[in-house]
Amino acid sequence: MNNLTSGSEMGPRFELYKGIFYILATSALLYLLIRRNEKRSLNLQNEIIDSNERWKSFFESANDPIFILDREKKILEVNKRAENLYGYTRDEFLKLSLGSLQKESNAALNVELLDIEKDKSIESNVLQVKKSGEIFPAEISISRVNPGSVSEY
What we know:
With 153 residues, the chain is an alpha+beta fold. It has helices spanning 10-61, 80-86, 90-93, 107-116; strands spanning 67-69, 75-78, 122-129, 135-142.
């Protein structure tokens, strides 16, 4: 028989030490795995923040007005160039739809908008109306994007 496990005192003591060692080793491994996952999570969060900042910088510094629309063509977001060109504030834009910026209903454009649902993009020349009532010609380009399960344009 093994000397470490034989005898009245040594067997239980060995089992106790073995149990403590197992608990400490398992705890250390769990700590290292959790710490590694937390670092990975923090790195991913930082990458998302950086990506959002780059996107927002690109969006805001564009020389053309950019609108993000929902499926009903309601305005969800605009860049500064759109605010400057049209004369509306961001909050005012968020109460409008694409159609409310047009001089008159454009049947051809409405048909083309249906094509977007088929994953196409469209370009069209339309008359747009500024907040001041001034009418100006504009070339619009609309494409469908799907961030997650929501369609935006």
